[in-house]
Write a structure and sequence with these properties.
By secondary structure, the chain is an alpha+beta fold. It has three helices and four strands, in the order E-E-E-H-H-E-H. About 15% of the residues have low confidence.
């Protein structure tokens, strides 16, 4: 049970950002919450509001199980596909002498769409 004096100050989730049909999406995969907006920054800002609402609801219901609802496997596959694409591109750039250091992806990965992975 969650008590008011035991609520964590911070919660960390992985955010996968992507664009489809000109709309940006931010997806918190551990909670399977999605927000959208005209830019990734706006979608991520809206996602923060939605995650906070879910945290508040779980605290109100005193049920931490209401927080964690993993996203479908397809979301993880999309994320890891984008991550592998990014790593492969970096490796090719390094081999061609275009990159001098390893690019480490940020906590979230932004993929424009699935077609980028096929390029």
């Amino acid at each position: 049970m969650i008590r008011q004096d035991q609520v964590a100050a911070e919660i960390h989730v992985h955010v996968f950002g992507y664009r489809e049909d000109g709309v940006w999406y931010a997806h918190a995969w551990e909670m399977d919450i999605i927000a959208s907006g005209p830019s990734f920054e706006e979608a991520a800002s809206e996602l923060e509001v939605l995650v906070q609402a879910q945290v508040n609801f779980a605290a109100f219901r005193r049920n931490p199980g209401l927080l964690w609802h993993p996203a479908p496997k397809e979301v993880a596959a999309k994320f890891y596909g984008a991550l592998l694409y990014s790593q492969a591109r970096t490796d090719l750039e390094r081999e061609a002498g275009l990159a001098t250091s390893l690019t480490i992806p940020p906590p979230f990965m932004i993929a424009q769409n699935d077609s980028n992975q096929d390029a």
